[in-house]
Design goal:
The complex is a heterodimer of chains A (about 110) and B (about 110). Chain A is mainly beta and about 110 residues long. Chain A is built from no helices and eleven strands. Chain A has one domain: Immunoglobulins (Immunoglobulin-like). In chain A, a hairpin with a 6-residue loop joins strand 4 (about 30-40) and strand 5 (about 45-50). Classes of the chains: A mainly beta (about 110), B mainly beta (about 110).
């Protein structure tokens, strides 16, 4: 069966510090990968998605970046965090198909920038 | 902007009652819809989906209804339990993309014992 892991689960970082959130998927090959952010009590905002190794599409201009160094690994990074980067970050994957189907989400990483 | 929205941001029900969560969508070409449940502090979990060639689909204690005429989607939860307390999101494929889903704003369901 397929599983998705993301870490760390909780992170408290000072403004201006770097960030690295990691996500890995097991049990499938060549998945589409996604990073979402969710502010408290709000909906899901798509940040990045990737349809293959090294292929990153950015949805929202910001000081975050994403990388996909391996087929089932997706990393969210920042060189200098802002207060507004606080939120709940969710990694997700979907099957490569002619059309989008179900997204499978990880358990999330809660980032607090102080 | 988002094409999928919700009529009610919060819904409070008594344990054992039936719950109905509504969702409006604007893209008449959407052919696939999903409902997700997100418990506090966790990632969204798939509940049920429906394709546009269907009007109704049933799962375990959940039913999704699709009214394409008025572009309306609903999730019905039978005999609501405290464990059903969560935020519920509807989602549809993003117009013009084969890779993305557009999510509604979510409805917070609270089940009172």
């Amino acid at each position: 069966s397929q599983t998705i892991h993301q870490w760390p689960a909780t992170l408290v970082q000072p403004v201006g510090s770097p960030l690295s959130l990691e996500c890995t998927v097991e049990g499938t090959s060549n998945p589409n990968l996604y990073w979402y952010r969710q502010a408290a009590g709000r909906g899901l905002q798509l940040l990045f998605y990737s349809v293959g190794i090294g292929q990153i599409s950015s949805e929202v201009p910001q000081n975050l970046s994403a990388s996909r160094p391996q087929d089932r690994q997706f990393i969210l990074s920042s060189k200098k965090l802002l207060l507004s980067d606080s939120g709940f970050y969710l990694c997700a994957w979907s099957v490569q198909a002619p059309a989008i189907g179900e997204l499978f989400f990880g358990e999330g990483s809660r980032l607090t920038v102080l | 902007g988002e094409s999928v929205g919700l009529h009610l941001p919060t819904l409070s029900v008594q344990e054992g009652d039936n719950s109905i969560i509504n969702c409006a969508y604007s893209n008449s070409a959407s052919d696939y819809f999903i409902w997700y449940k997100q418990e506090s502090g966790k990632g969204p979990q798939f509940i049920i989906d429906i394709r546009s060639n269907m009007d109704k689909r049933q799962g375990q204690r959940v039913t999704v209804l699709l009214n394409k005429t008025v572009k309306h989607l609903s999730l019905q939860i039978a005999a609501t339990q405290p464990g059903d307390s969560a935020v519920y999101f509807c989602a549809e494929p993003t117009l013009g993309s084969n890779y993305k889903l557009t999510f509604g704003k979510g409805t917070l369901l609270t089940v009172n014992p």
